[in-house]
């Protein structure tokens, strides 16, 4: 028996043991939560690196490509392979936002090469976490991204953020909040693009339902989105 145990009553000793047991359970809970978070972060980082490597391989065999940069809406799209002799390269990254450092990510994949045109489609993920992303902050981040991308191409274009719908996990309340934020974000894009020497591209009206889950585009949604992308890409043909 230890000195501590000798100097305590049975009730005190029992209380200490319970407290230490509780403390141990708390530590185990924190450790488990950290491991889960770390694994999720590793999955995100692994996908980011894998996509960048694939982009590097793709871009290494092309000259003057049209690059479509953005989030999962871009990554899940089925773009034409080329337009008037320029390869169209899908540089979508699931989960990407204006805070994802896509400028450096794409620059490393290009490896000192340049693009004929970069079309950017971002903002949905920013809107879905709007509690930490003000309209001013969104505009500042988009402006900073375009400043980076302007070093990689002579032509830049920015697509309007597509709408979301109350569908799947997207409740009516969530849709209303996200839609209000998207409207705010879209309102600053014309000024941001004008100040950055880029073109702002409004999306055509989308058939409803335009999404499969409230966020990601359905075939009807992609009809409008694809049209905006291909018409924008065609500008380099003249």
From TrEMBL:
<dbReference type="GO" id="GO:0016788">
    <property type="term" value="F:hydrolase activity, acting on ester bonds"/>
</dbReference>
<keyword id="KW-0812">Transmembrane</keyword>
<keyword id="KW-0472">Membrane</keyword>
<protein>
    <submittedName>
        <fullName>Lysophospholipase L1</fullName>
    </submittedName>
</protein>
<dbReference type="InterPro" id="IPR013830">
    <property type="entry name" value="SGNH_hydro"/>
</dbReference>
<dbReference type="InterPro" id="IPR051532">
    <property type="entry name" value="Ester_Hydrolysis_Enzymes"/>
</dbReference>
<dbReference type="InterPro" id="IPR036514">
    <property type="entry name" value="SGNH_hydro_sf"/>
</dbReference>
<feature type="domain" description="SGNH hydrolase-type esterase">
    <location>
        <begin position="70"/>
        <end position="224"/>
    </location>
</feature>
<keyword id="KW-1133">Transmembrane helix</keyword>
<dbReference type="Pfam" id="PF13472">
    <property type="entry name" value="Lipase_GDSL_2"/>
</dbReference>
<feature type="transmembrane region" description="Helical">
    <location>
        <begin position="20"/>
        <end position="38"/>
    </location>
</feature>
């Amino acid at each position: 028996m230890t000195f501590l145990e000798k100097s305590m009553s049975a009730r005190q000793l029992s209380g200490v043991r319970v407290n230490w047991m509780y403390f141990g359970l708390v530590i185990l809970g924190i450790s488990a939560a950290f491991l889960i978070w770390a694994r999720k972060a590793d999955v995100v980082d692994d996908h980011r690196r894998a996509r960048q490597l694939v982009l590097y391989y793709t871009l290494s065999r092309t000259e003057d490509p049209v690059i479509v940069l953005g989030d999962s809406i871009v990554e899940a799209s089925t773009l034409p392979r080329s337009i008037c002799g320029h390869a169209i390269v899908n540089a979508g990254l699931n989960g990407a936002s204006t805070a994802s450092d896509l400028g450096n990510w794409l620059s490393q994949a290009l490896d000192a090469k340049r693009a004929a045109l970069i079309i950017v489609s971002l903002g949905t993920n920013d809107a879905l976490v709007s509690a930490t992303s003000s309209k001013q902050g969104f505009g500042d981040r988009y402006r900073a991204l375009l400043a980076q991308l302007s070093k990689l191409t002579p032509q830049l274009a920015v697509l309007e953020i597509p709408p979301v719908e109350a569908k799947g996990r997207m409740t009516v309340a969530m849709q209303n909040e996200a839609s209000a934020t998207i409207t705010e974000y879209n309102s600053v894009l014309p000024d941001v693009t004008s100040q950055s020497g880029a073109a702002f591209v409004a999306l055509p009206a989308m058939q409803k339902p335009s999404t499969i889950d409230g966020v990601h585009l359905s075939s009807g949604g992609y009809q409008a989105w694809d049209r905006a992308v291909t018409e924008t890409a065609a500008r380099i043909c003249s």
